[in-house]
């Protein structure tokens, strides 16, 4: 539905809707009333977001430090204690206002508090709007790797208000564009080309271009998740770039942000797919060009190769010896593959990592 500058989209995803509309945050009281009547709300956000976004929710705001390090069991412990101190119980609803870190952490608190309470996703970073807030995967990181403790716990709704992107730093905007490029690469060749053609408008934050991007990515993610909510098959296509990307994030102790790590992971995994003959030669190089044109620096940090490779071995996708990897295919094709994950051996991962390093210079 389009009326003036207001765009409303609803994706029925199992039990919840995703709504994208400029100004939607001002309607949070109505969403809470509709989706969790009689539940006492609490907002969870990070310190940076709290400075910019003031959700009109009648309840306490629990603030965590910004950054990936907050996706931890220590924060989970602190938040659950604070909720208990404040007298929250089963008839409570959490409102996650922030990027993917706040969303994943809040979702995990909601999954476990009083054996599970409802929560609303209100993503404020582009990455969370196009990807992290949708799909119900929640969790925290451990010293062994990313997202190793978590739960499937779908939100009761996702409220996306693109107007809050005005305060998002450029680097974070670009991190979000990486997941959108991934969606195109994995599921929709036309979208993959559209992002490239509209990069100037996207980087200039033209509202129409950003709204289209969010809408198309939400539709792609929602469709893939709906086909395999518990991630036993097709949903793994969304993990393209993430086997090596997650390892890089962890090995860099989260100095490399999720979006940028995913971009480097996609380049490395595309190279691996090229060597296996799964994609035409040149995909890895083409991705480097696309990401650089989107303003991503793609700098590989000065960490030893063996640290990254050890982290790949620790990733949750690595079970029983072989490393599972959702290797990219030709643009648009991976989402149609019934078994997106293929086993790769350590030597191939090492070679892929070194080749990506050389390509990125
Ligand atoms: N659950 C999933 O399916 C899923 C999917 C993709 C990514 N993720 C997770 O999401 C995380 C990355 O998300 P992210 O990139 O949003 O990180 P993030 O939550 O750290 O947000 C990025 C930065 O932007 C700031 N910020 C957010 N909104 C802002 C705004 N409107 N104005 C100003 N600053 C703002 C935050 O304070 C933070 O510093 C990773 O932990 C990743 O594993 C989860
Ligand atoms: Zn991701």
Care to give the gist of this entry?
With 361 residues, the chain is of the alpha/beta class. The protein has helices at 28-35, 47-52, 73-85, 100-112, 126-132, 170-187, 189-197, 199-203, 207-227, 242-251, 258-275, 283-293, 305-314, 346-360, and strands at residues 2-3, 6-7, 10-13, 16-20, 40-46, 61-64, 92-98, 119-123, 137-142, 145-152, 157-160, 323-325, 342-344.
Write up what this structure looks like.
By secondary structure, the chain is an alpha/beta fold. Helix content is 45%, strand content 17%. The chain has 14 helices and 13 strands. It has helices at residues 28-35, 47-52, 73-85, 100-112, 126-132, 170-187, 189-197, 199-203, 207-227, 242-251, 258-275, 283-293, 305-314, 346-360; strands at residues 2-3, 6-7, 10-13, 16-20, 40-46, 61-64, 92-98, 119-123, 137-142, 145-152, 157-160, 323-325, 342-344. Strand 5 (40-46), helix 2 and strand 6 form a beta-alpha-beta unit. Helix 13 (305-314) crosses helix 14 (346-360). The chain is globular. It starts with a strand and ends with a helix. Mean pLDDT is 92; it is low at 1-9. The structure holds nicotinamide-adenine-dinucleotide and zinc ion (ZN). The site of zinc ion has 5 residues, from helix 11.
Fold blueprint:
Elements: E1 2-3, E2 6-7, E3 10-13, E4 16-20, H1 28-35, E5 40-46, H2 47-52, E6 61-64, H3 73-85, E7 92-98, H4 100-112, E8 119-123, H5 126-132, E9 137-142, E10 145-152, E11 157-160, H6 170-187, H7 189-197, H8 199-203, H9 207-227, H10 242-251, H11 258-275, H12 283-293, H13 305-314, E12 323-325, E13 342-344, H14 346-360
Parallel strand pairs: 4-11, 5-6, 5-7, 7-8, 8-11
Antiparallel strand pairs: 1-2, 3-4, 9-10, 12-13
Helix pairs in contact: 3-4, 5-6, 5-9, 6-7, 6-9, 6-11, 10-11, 10-13, 11-12, 11-14, 13-14
Bound molecules: nicotinamide-adenine-dinucleotide and zinc ion.
């Amino acid at each position: 539905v389009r009326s003036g500058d207001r765009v409303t989209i609803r994706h029925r995803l199992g039990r919840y809707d995703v709504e994208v509309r400029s100004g939607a945050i001002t309607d949070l009281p109505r969403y809470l009333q509709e989706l969790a009547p009689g539940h006492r709300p609490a907002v969870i956000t990070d310190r940076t977001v709290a400075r910019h976004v003031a959700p009109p929710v009648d309840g306490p705001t629990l603030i965590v430090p910004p950054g990936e390090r907050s996706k931890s069991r220590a924060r989970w412990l602190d938040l659950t204690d604070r909720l208990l101190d404040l007298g929250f119980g089963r008839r409570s609803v959490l409102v996650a206002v922030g990027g993917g870190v706040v969303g994943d952490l809040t979702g995990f608190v909601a999954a476990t508090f009083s054996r599970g309470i409802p929560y609303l996703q209100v993503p404020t970073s582009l990455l969370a709007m196009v990807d992290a807030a949708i799909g119900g995967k929640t969790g925290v990181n451990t010293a062994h790797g990313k997202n190793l403790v978590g739960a499937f716990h779908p939100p009761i709704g996702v409220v996306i208000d693109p107007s809050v992107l005005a305060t998002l730093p450029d680097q974070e905007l670009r991190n979000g564009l990486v997941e959108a490029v991934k969606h195109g690469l994995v599921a929709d060749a036309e979208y993959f080309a559209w992002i490239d053609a509209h990069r100037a408008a996207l980087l200039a934050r033209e509202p129409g271009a950003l709204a289209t991007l969010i809408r198309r990515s939400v539709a792609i993610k929602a469709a893939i998740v709906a086909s395999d909510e518990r991630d036993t098959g097709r949903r793994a296509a969304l993990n393209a770039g993430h086997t090596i990307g997650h390892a890089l994030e962890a090995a860099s102790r989260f100095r490399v942000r999720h979006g940028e790590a995913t971009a480097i992971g996609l380049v490395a995994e595309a190279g691996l797919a090229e060597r296996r003959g799964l994609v035409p030669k040149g995909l890895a190089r083409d991705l480097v060009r696309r990401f650089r044109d989107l303003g991503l620096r793609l700098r590989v940090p000065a960490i030893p190769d063996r640290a990254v490779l050890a982290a790949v071995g620790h990733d949750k996708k690595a079970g029983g010896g072989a490393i599972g990897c959702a290797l990219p295919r030709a643009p648009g094709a991976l989402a149609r593959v019934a078994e997106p994950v293929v086993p790769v051996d350590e030597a191939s991962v090492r070679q892929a990592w070194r080749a990506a390093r050389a390509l990125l210079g």
